[in-house]
Amino acid sequence: MAYHVLPDLVIHDDDIVVTYIHASGPGGQNVNKVATAAQIRFDATRCATLTSRLRARLRLLAGSRMTRDGVVILTAQRFRSQSRNREDAIERLLDLLRQAAHVPTRRIATRPSRTQRRRRMDDKSRRARIKQGRGRPMAE
Known about the structure:
Blueprint: E1 2-6, E2 9-12, E3 16-21, E4 37-43, H1 52-62, E5 71-76, H2 82-101, H3 114-132
Antiparallel strand pairs: 1-2, 3-4, 4-5
Helix pairs in contact: 1-2
């Protein structure tokens, strides 16, 4: 199975390793018997579809969820069933990859115009006069 992150970016099922572990939280008597939490491992360094730029952005966004070897580890235990936790973990991985693929536009530094600066200083002076008028009246 293949997961389409973007139209030009596809992650194959064999790039993702899913293991199941015991989950904390709700589950009743089932919680101690069945490993319902899904833990997925995605090896970004070995994935052929990722570009080096995308890997670098993924490393920044993943933070502590990525190991030194470049493996992204995500654990999902929100639901009581293995299948829903697996789907949740994979969806979170795909969202992370979408964020890494989105390159933010660089901000162009601009300066305020002379009129804007003058208006700002006039407003500051007006506020200062208002606040000065709130003081105690001077004794004559």
